[in-house]
């Protein structure tokens, strides 16, 4: 549309996986309930978790505070009792010594990334370009659409470590990682959507140190991390540093509809983002913030994350791995990413004769939906073949569906190999 601005044109395109999601949604609508949907990013509604959110909402409704929460504007930084609950919780559990000024609540963590990267990246006051550096891709496709200038994205391919005959792990290529003044911010998810990778504490420390040397902020997307939703299957730590912003989300802890993201970091980094948010959206929904305050203050959110949410997906992951071992031919080259966290499995098929998108199409014909891997490589040089050899498999389906889906996936992959 010629009436649209340059930015308008860019933002009217569906970025990365959202374009695929549209195709998936249309596909699923056509076939009724016959599909095996291993594509969904929407978390499972777990009974104990939903009951907790329901109870805190009912409690709130019975109090005079309810009117204030619903019928009054709040402050852009966030709803006071939630800021207090976050400060108390993180000081108690992690000894961070933070105050309210170190916390910013946004309508979901996605909007924090949008605000923050455009505060730190793009043209600076001297007209110099500052890039958003993704130190390891594949990573969350939502990062593909958050920069106002698309060309400001700089993404680094990982090193690949094979572990045993059918497992691998991505590592940030620290030999290649150079952080200089041209970098505006560094961003990565940990645990990672789509791979389930958890960059190690030492690797994080290296990245943070190199960024600190040139005064570059590091934004760590903790949408799947401890303490909530606690979707981690290996030990990991959260470390406070003067150039790090930790971003937590309640979306995978049962509250995606209410849009509550919690950023914790140095005050000077959060302040500009807070102003951006005030300009763009005033503040996040206070109903979500008010029930989140209660769930964090009581410790129940962290407890249910550890005792209900984490085991739910971990069990599914174990079934998926067993199904792969059972169904996939041992002699074929296939590798699952080491299961370290999040709610996905990531499959790499190095010698697959067809592309990830073709595999997606062929699987659809057999009634199975997965997510092709290539959209998870935003900013990647298109010539790197690895990006067309992976698919993401969601753990939100039932165990039976996961097992059936893996069996069909194995047949389709075998057929693709045997045709060449
Ligand atoms: N970051 C990652 C890695 C995600 O997977 C998602 C959602 O799927 C988000 C951020 C967005 O989360 P929110 O609902 O908090 O905006």
From TrEMBL:
<dbReference type="GO" id="GO:0009042">
    <property type="term" value="F:valine-pyruvate transaminase activity"/>
</dbReference>
<keyword id="KW-0032">Aminotransferase</keyword>
<dbReference type="Pfam" id="PF00155">
    <property type="entry name" value="Aminotran_1_2"/>
</dbReference>
<keyword id="KW-0663">Pyridoxal phosphate</keyword>
<dbReference type="InterPro" id="IPR050859">
    <property type="entry name" value="Class-I_PLP-dep_aminotransf"/>
</dbReference>
<dbReference type="InterPro" id="IPR015421">
    <property type="entry name" value="PyrdxlP-dep_Trfase_major"/>
</dbReference>
<keyword id="KW-0808">Transferase</keyword>
<protein>
    <submittedName>
        <fullName>Valine--pyruvate transaminase</fullName>
        <ecNumber>2.6.1.66</ecNumber>
    </submittedName>
</protein>
<dbReference type="InterPro" id="IPR004839">
    <property type="entry name" value="Aminotransferase_I/II_large"/>
</dbReference>
<dbReference type="InterPro" id="IPR015424">
    <property type="entry name" value="PyrdxlP-dep_Trfase"/>
</dbReference>
<feature type="domain" description="Aminotransferase class I/classII large">
    <location>
        <begin position="68"/>
        <end position="406"/>
    </location>
</feature>
